[in-house]
């Protein structure tokens, strides 16, 4: 099988076209993966050092998002909880590379969160309600020439951006990039297009790449944020709707970060958000508590009724007005620290947000409509669909590629077993079709339960970790390079995809199995080319008599390259006899070599005793491709004892005896009289 060069090319293509980051599933087992990334036209666009390798942010390395609108989307392996055990209410951290909080140093990135990857809510940072902030800004970059673009925006402005390379599709393969004109939309915090090294913006909290990463207070609401603020801390409770009002989210699964300024820093270049790490907040053993309500909040002398459960208030103001808060806790009124703030006129957005926070407690957040803001409408995040009644399936299962393989055997699996152990599985496949039934991942979970018993039940994460449809640990070892085959093929949607020269494959928690299916889970032995070949015997069960010629046949194909084809296509085009593969049997608990395949894939088995044997394939093809083990059952019956030849040796003996007997008869006929 001359396939390794082809495999190398294929994997390169897969790396360019897949939404999956291999870096996200290395030994460190990153907490998230990248599902989208685009570096907007900037000095770093298409730059291999800082403008392409966004996956490296999951491993503590710096990557840029480029000019305004450049963005990345992370999908976390497990839901990020809006937990009452997170100090100061901080639920997760996304850090940049700022070394201080100076106006010219900050390069703020706006953050959005989502539960389903479709419905997004902005996390309102300190500048969200300021007049200069534009909630619905959009810009169109047009390719002009090398390292230059023109732009037009929703504010009626236009001009040239330089240096600014237009993004090349091959560098950002998981988003669609128009050939000449790229439009990006989002929240704009500051726009300064006259080049100057003094340009910039200074924020207090709620953005990426604005403060130093260590040696500072972990409290986002500290008084002196320039000296004490720490970068990239986020509270899911900051989530707001398009009108700026709070949305209650108990958890999120997706985080989007986007460059939120359009600033020309002259010799510094554009203000581009950088990301250096993604992390979860530490969790305390006990709830940290909620900040006590202030004694009062007054708006232009009118006291708000703080005795109810609502965090939304309406107070009409005319002209300038003051807001005062009666507390000795930390208070932010929009972006200003302090218990009072004077507004010279009605705010542009008509909303004032007041945050009150003390000790290490979660904050209280109030939204005040001063007469100009849109009325508040409660938004309820989409509810999870009702779960279907669990079903079960009995399949044959085997695992190979490790020193301790699992022989093929039947296992009965319930469709709710993964959920039982707390695994977050996909509800729909990549075509949006609801998943009903037992999946390959359910089978793998059941196998762990069967193999490890109470040890797995008590600590499943010690043996099996799966996130975002990817298995990162299985059977207690790293599983970044592992795969599965069902009924001889890699499960797929049956829809031809020209990009892959085959059908689009299913993930472990979207591939559904049925009664009687055969599931093979394996670890790749060829970690360089992933050239492992799936093998199969010409029969699942054999029955021989002890004096028979016990010959079996073994064929195979390269799994990762041809596995997404239909089975008949594999048989017609890609299957080859496997030569030099060793066939073993388990005899009295021992692994015994009982045959080796010839150039036609045939192996004569050396099984002399009557009984039932499990045989299995191991070894490498002539070009060094490892075999993915397969199994068959051989029954050896008693010899027939009818005097007829059985087996090759017996046929030779039979022919020799026949010839000998013929010569004896001829000799006796011609010369028998001599003896008389």
What features would you describe in this structure?
It is a single chain. The chain has 676 residues and is mainly β. It is 12% helix and 34% strand. It is built from eight helices and 47 strands. Strand 5 and strand 6 (120-123) form a beta hairpin. The radius of gyration is 34 Å and the shape is elongated.
Number of helices: 8
* Outline type: elongated
The pLDDT mean sits at 88
Instruction: Please give the alpha-carbon distance between the first and last residues.
Output: 69 Å
Concise summary:
The chain is mainly beta and 676 residues long. It has 8 helices and 47 strands.
List the helices and strands and how they pair.
Layout: H1 4-17, E1 32-38, E2 63-64, E3 71-81, E4 92-95, E5 109-114, E6 120-123, E7 134-145, E8 148-153, E9 158-161, E10 181-188, E11 190-192, H2 225-228, E12 233-234, E13 239-240, E14 251-259, E15 261-263, E16 274-275, E17 277-280, E18 297-299, E19 302-303, E20 312-314, E21 321-325, E22 330-333, E23 336-337, E24 340-343, E25 351-357, E26 364-369, E27 392-400, E28 406-414, H3 417-420, E29 438-439, H4 440-452, H5 454-458, E30 465-467, E31 470-474, E32 477-478, E33 482-486, E34 492-497, E35 502-505, E36 512-513, E37 518-523, E38 533-537, E39 541-545, E40 551-558, H6 559-562, H7 567-574, E41 576-577, E42 582-587, E43 590-596, E44 602-604, E45 611-618, E46 627-628, E47 631-637, H8 648-675
